[in-house]
Each structure stands twice: as structure tokens, then as C-alpha cells.
Specification:
By secondary structure, the chain is mainly α. It is 49% helix and 0% strand.
């Protein structure tokens, strides 16, 4: 004989107020929503560049490369123990932007964090 299924009404399921939820239903204050970012105030250019090379977040960018160039960049990055993202980031920081542009971007970022 088959066992009778228990109705969901009869199960003891905790209410959402009793458990942690991904999206809380209470009001969120501005202090709760502020990101807790602590960025060091760096002065030396090599420290700022190193900070950006080690930076894990950021904006995603799509670029289109010829397939053979893509393979070469990927192969060289692997040989150096890196990945394409870090290789392209290094090219931008070392060869494309000037030191003053990098420092200006860093200072704008620091100022934005202070104002939020």
C-alpha cells in the first residue's frame, strides 16, 4: 500500500520572517546600502599601477581580435602564468594610458568614495 503524501499545509515550514532571505523585506537605510570600500590613498605611481593590475573588480569590456592574434595573446599569457584579462590590463596600464591619466583616474575614484 502506498504511503499517503503529506499536504504542504501540514508540513512545518518556517515563515519567511523566521529565516534569512536573499531579499530582506524590511526597509534598508542608506547606511546599510553603502559599500564598505577601503581604498588606500596611494601617492607613488608604481603603487597606483600595481593597485590597478591587482584590482579584481571593474567594468567588463568586449573586444574583437583577429583569431590568430587572440590565440597568440592567450598562448603568451598562459606561458607567463597569467590570463588574457590581466595581459590586456597590463598593456593598457603600461603602454596606452599616461601616468598622469592613471593618477587622475585614481584620484577621481578616491574622491568619489569619499563623497559617498
Amino acid at each position: 500500500m502506498a504511503k499517503k503524501r503529506i499536504s504542504i499545509k501540514d508540513k512545518k515550514i518556517p515563515q519567511t520572517s523566521d529565516i534569512d532571505t536573499l531579499f530582506p523585506t524590511g526597509s534598508v537605510t542608506p547606511e546599510d546600502s553603502k559599500p564598505d570600500k577601503k581604498v588606500p590613498a596611494l601617492k607613488k605611481m608604481e603603487d597606483i599601477i600595481s593597485y590597478y593590475k591587482d584590482y579584481k573588480g571593474g567594468k567588463q569590456v568586449s573586444i574583437y581580435l583577429p583569431e590568430e592574434i587572440h590565440r597568440k595573446v592567450k598562448s603568451k599569457a598562459v606561458q607567463e602564468g597569467s590570463n588574457m584579462k590581466d595581459a590586456i590590463k597590463a598593456v593598457v596600464l603600461d603602454n596606452y594610458l599616461t601616468e598622469s591619466e592613471i593618477k587622475e583616474a585614481y584620484n577621481e575614484y578616491i574622491d568619489e568614495l569619499k563623497n559617498t
